[in-house]
Amino acid sequence: MGWRPAEPRLIAWTDCRGGVCGAMDRPGFTASLVAGGVAGVAVDLILFPLDTIKTRLQSPQGFNKAGGFHGIYAGVPSAAIGSFPNAAAFFITYEYVKWFLHTDSSSYLMPVKHMLAASAGEVIPFSLVQFPLWESLKALWSWRQDHVVDCWQSAVCGAFAGGFAAAVTTPLDVAKTRIMLAKAGSSTASGNVLSALHGVWRTHGLSGLFAGVFPRMAAISLGGFIFLGAYEQTRSLLLEVGRERP
Predict the structure, then answer these.
(1) How many C-beta atoms lie closer than 10 Å to residue 57's C-beta?
(2) CA-CA distance, 25 to 239, in Å (whole number)?
(3) Which ranges does the record mark as transmembrane (predicted)?
């Protein structure tokens, strides 16, 4: 028998009762707001240096000329501070859109709902791949074990989803890096992604389009584990505290 989505009773709520994380029965917007901010700060503090290394690997100057391992922690505090409101805004939007577009958990429209929710929070191809895959992996794991996933299992699903999304969107990330680092007035600096992709393909071939793919996958897989795991765990704790208040 092939896989089928989890029964509605298995993923009818998102707060993590007893450390268990599922889908949604009430928004919990405040918990989502704070948990998203905490998750954003946590992942930036840990993974910012890896992202710097990945960017330098993709630089047309080459890794060493782009700075190598020098100053890979520069800018971490400002990035962490900026990530709190960004991540908080993303998750409150994501959860609200999921709640607003509520469908039965067995519906084949669930991936579409998650894509719409992710695109509302942050309109980038990466999120359109990662979040529907994350939700689908959680639903599959929930069905296989006959109860909703624990928060650590949700984090593992986030790692796999992040790694896959990182791999398939690497060419776009390479193009973005080339555009950002291009000399003013050059054709690449105009911001045309297709032109940047063509230029990389012409000069470096397939390996150029996927430059830095393994560090990117490693960083984002770890980032997915930390980001989504921290989000689920923090949201769980906040909801638990809210329920205990008189």
Answers:
(1) 18
(2) 13
(3) 29-50, 71-94, 209-231
The residue whose two tokens read 């029965």 is 25
CA-CA distance, 21 to 180, in Å (whole number)?
39
Would you give the end-to-end CA distance of the chain in angstroms?
47
Q: What is the pLDDT of residues 119-158, one digit of tens each?
A: 555 547 788 888 889 888 998 999 899 988 888 999 999 9
pLDDT of residue 166: 92
Distance of CA 58 to the CA centre of its chain: 21
Query: Can you tell me the distance from the alpha carbon of 116 to that of 67, in angstroms, rounded to the nearest whole number?
Result: 39
Q: How many CA atoms lie within 13 A of 34 on its CB side?
A: 10
> What would the two tokens of residue 16 be?
């993590």
What is the rounded CA–CA span in Å between residue 12 and residue 101?
14
Neighbours of 53 (CB within 10 A): 19
Candidates 239, 78, 101; CA nearest to 86 is 78
pTM of the model: 0.67
Model confidence at 3: pLDDT above 50: no
Place of tokens 């689908």: 136
Cβ contacts of 246 within 8 Å, gap of 6 or more: none
